């Protein structure tokens, strides 16, 4: 009899607690993480250049936070803080991204580079940066990754070599 009453109390407790847990407010991912909000100044959606014609697209703090996670998982071993460990003379600064052939300072051009990495002068395939096929990172994800890199190059303190020299 004692076991039955303990079991009934347990069930009643679960019926009360479980809905509270499931319906409790979850952390707001749309706000992005504190790095994105503070250093990338992206608490509101930010327009980033899509192509060389000047077309833009808004990227939310959530988009940039997702891109930051992808960067941390896939790129940070060689590009911590916007540096470029395989070739320290070329960083992920806006000036260096723009100076590449072809330039890599907008979303579409950086995505194209990530899909088919080329040397900085564009003359041959690069083996320093790994190729990111659609099967590994779908278009929306790779665009968020590119958006994070470009926004970090625009705003993050000490991103890439360029900012160390300023």
TrEMBL record:
Its main location: membrane. Its cofactor is heme c. It is found in: Membrane. Belongs to the cytochrome c family. PsbV subfamily. This is Cytochrome c-550-like protein. Pfam families: Cytochrom_C550. InterPro entries: Cyt_c-like_dom, Cyt_c-like_dom_sf, Cytochrom_C550, PsbV_cyt_c550-like. Keywords: Electron transport, Heme, Iron, Membrane, Metal-binding, Photosynthesis, Photosystem II, Transport. It comes from Microcoleus asticus IPMA8. It is a peripheral membrane protein. The gene is psbV2. Residues 62-153 form the Cytochrome c domain. NCBIfam families: PS_II_psbV2.
């Amino acid at each position: 009899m004692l076991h039955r009453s303990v079991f009934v109390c347990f069930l009643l407790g679960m019926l009360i607690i479980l809905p509270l847990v499931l319906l409790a407010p979850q952390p707001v991912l749309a706000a992005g993480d504190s790095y994105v909000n503070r250093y990338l100044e992206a608490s509101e959606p930010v327009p980033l250049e899509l192509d060389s014609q000047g077309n833009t697209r808004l990227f939310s703090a959530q988009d940039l936070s997702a891109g930051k996670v992808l960067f941390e998982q896939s790129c940070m071993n060689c590009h911590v803080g916007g540096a470029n460990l395989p070739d320290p003379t070329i960083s992920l600064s806006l000036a260096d991204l723009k100076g590449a052939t072809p330039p890599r300072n907008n979303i579409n051009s950086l995505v194209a580079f990530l899909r088919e990495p080329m040397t900085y002068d564009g003359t041959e395939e690069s083996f320093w940066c790994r190729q990111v096929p659609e099967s590994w990172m779908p278009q929306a994800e790779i665009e968020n990754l590119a958006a994070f890199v470009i926004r970090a190059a625009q705003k993050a303190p000490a991103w890439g070599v360029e900012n160390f020299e300023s």
